[in-house]
Design a protein that fits this description.
26 strands; about 20% helix
């Protein structure tokens, strides 16, 4: 195996790996500070923060070092490469670079949104001098709040790493951002009349290592050290972007992409980034309801769930062929498994159907050319299918039902008892389908938001949003990923897993990994889940790769 030496520590790299000094050092657990370099963008070596000493080990064991420091981001490693990232010469260069970057940088950390997660703060503390020798006034440049609908630019904080410019040229392909002027006058700006409003624009905020580009949606909302972070999966479409949810006091403040080479890579779209606001909608169902002839009989879980269980068992005994359930592509695989197994246990004649996943237009791929046409190679795709788990729910129903039954087949008025699971913020059924349920003897609706459907239901089960549940989604490619409960739902609303666990007689303690382990044993498609632990990047359905 090729071996690279990092700070006198040998590190083996793969035969086919093409790494630079920064990446090789990361394998050794050594940090080489950098600003302009990003693994998904082209290399420009402009910030000079990653300067290191580099040499080669000769066959006789001697080492020949290059006389000058070289940028680690631009220098590939090979067998015998020697990298020194902690010598006095390197440390002096790091201090000089940081001093240069801070010459005109404002000392507004107490008001800056990036404070607490700022690369300039962190590196100044780790590698900087701790003082400035500048006696002249700082060069103050005007802020630009017109960069985009969701983006504002604090120009005087910018360190000209150009990550944002390269992103709009290489990943989104829309090229709205540019560098204007030269030398001390250079700034990031947009082309006149072309604000940065592409559907991936929010990623430039994540890419900015300092507080120059900020999200208007999050600006001045929270200090980042108060935020609690949970790993999850975006539910906006079937791409299944890995994300982190940042919340405080049970309120979500932002979503950020989480790197996953098996899913979306390093980025996410703005539809998912900003599309979670329905979680805090004033139309949220806040508790369960049991109705009899239109009158509310109970709003207590302790009363409603036993009554519902008895009603379902009675219906399954009397006319099981007239009982059906509509599963939602917003359910987790665990929730679908619990409900499907329970209903089929009551009677094999009960019909299990799946609601149609909402589709909007066509898949939107990036990058694009100047005319807005997609070009190859594709680096990011926003899926037209606006449901996170259609494939996972269908895999469960294929096992229990033997086929995929469309929801329309059970919404024709031929069934006396219907259990309908929702979750889509834009609704599961059409108005015509809801109107057709007027004569249903027993209508159970498990959903997130109040709607004409919940108004007709005999039992309303107030569920949780995807940010309020534990479980797993399966994306368009068959990748099974964890979603993690980050916040509590409003009032008496409960996570859907807990609702179904209690309803099916398994108790109130819902344990997603335990249910997944059970699924792996019973359903061949989910066998790769093993003991229920999906790891950092998830696992694929059997046969999906």
């Amino acid at each position: 195996m090729p071996t690279v030496t990092i700070n006198n520590q040998p590190v083996e790299i793969g035969e086919q790996e093409r790494l630079n000094c920064i990446q090789a050092a990361q394998k050794a657990g050594v940090e080489i500070p950098h600003y302009c370099w990003h693994p998904d963008l082209s290399v420009v070596a402009s910030c000079r923060m990653c300067l290191v000493e580099v040499g080669d080990k000769k066959p006789d064991g001697t080492v020949a070092m290059q006389p000058k420091l070289v940028p680690g981001c631009q220098t590939p490693v090979k067998d015998g490469t020697v990298v020194i990232a902690d010598s006095p010469k390197v440390k002096a260069a790091q201090k000089a670079t940081l001093e240069y970057l801070l010459l005109n940088h404002p000392l507004d950390c107490p008001t800056c949104d990036q404070a607490g997660e700022c690369g300039l703060q962190d590196y100044s503390y780790k590698y900087g001098r701790g003082y400035s020798r500048l006696n002249e006034p700082k060069n103050i440049k005007p802020d630009k709040d017109y960069i985009g609908d969701q983006i504002t630019l604090f120009t005087d904080r910018c360190i000209m790493c150009t990550r944002c410019v390269r992103f709009t040229r290489e990943v989104s392909g829309t090229a709205e951002l540019q560098v204007t002027s030269r030398g001390t006058h250079e700034e990031i700006d947009i082309f006149p009349g072309e604000p940065c409003n592409n559907k991936l624009a929010g990623n430039v905020v994540d890419l900015c290592p300092v507080g120059a580009l900020c999200s208007k949606d999050f600006l001045y909302e929270q200090r980042v050290w108060w935020l609690k972070t949970k790993k999850s999966v975006c539910a906006d479409c079937s791409t299944g972007c890995s994300v982190v949810i940042d919340q405080n006091h049970d309120a979500v403040f932002r979503l950020k992409p989480r790197y996953n080479p098996q899913a979306q890579g390093s980025f996410m779209c703005d539809d998912g980034r900003f599309g979670w606001k329905y979680i805090a909608s004033d139309k949220r169902l806040e508790g369960p309801v049991q109705r009899d002839n239109g009158a509310v009989r109970s709003t207590s879980w302790d009363t409603i769930l036993p009554a519902l269980r008895e009603a379902l068992e009675t219906a399954a005994k009397q006319r099981p062929e007239k009982v059906a359930a509509v599963f939602s592509p917003w359910m987790t695989v665990e929730e679908a498994f619990l409900l499907a197994k329970y209903l089929k246990t009551l009677s094999p004649k009960i019909t299990l159907a799946v609601a149609k996943a909402r589709v909007e237009g066509e898949d939107d791929t990036y990058p694009k050319d100047v005319h807005g046409r997609p070009v190859d190679p594709v680096k990011f795709t926003i899926r037209a299918e606006k449901a996170p788990n259609r494939r996972g729910v269908e895999a469960v129903l294929q096992h229990f039902q033997g086929s995929i039954v469309p929801a329309g087949d059970v919404l024709s008025g031929a069934f006396d008892t219907l259990y309908i699971a929702g979750g889509d913020p834009q609704g599961t059924l059409t108005e015509a389908q809801v109107a057709g349920l007027a004569k249903t003897r027993l209508l159970i609706v498990q959903d997130l938001l109040a709607s004409p459907l919940t108004d007709r239901a005999h039992y309303v089960l107030a569920g949780g949003s995807w940010a309020e549940r534990d479980g797993a989604f399966v994306n368009h490619a068959g990748l099974i990923q964890n979603i993690t409960r980050a916040i509590h739902g409003p009032e008496e609303a409960r996570p859907d897993g807990r609702i179904l666990s209690e309803l099916t007689g398994r108790g109130a303690l819902f344990n997603a990994p335990r249910v997944r382990a059970e699924m792996a044993k019973e359903i061949p498609a989910f066998a790769p889940m093993g003991e229920g632990q999906l790891g950092e990047y998830g696992v694929f359905l059997a046969g999906a790769r």
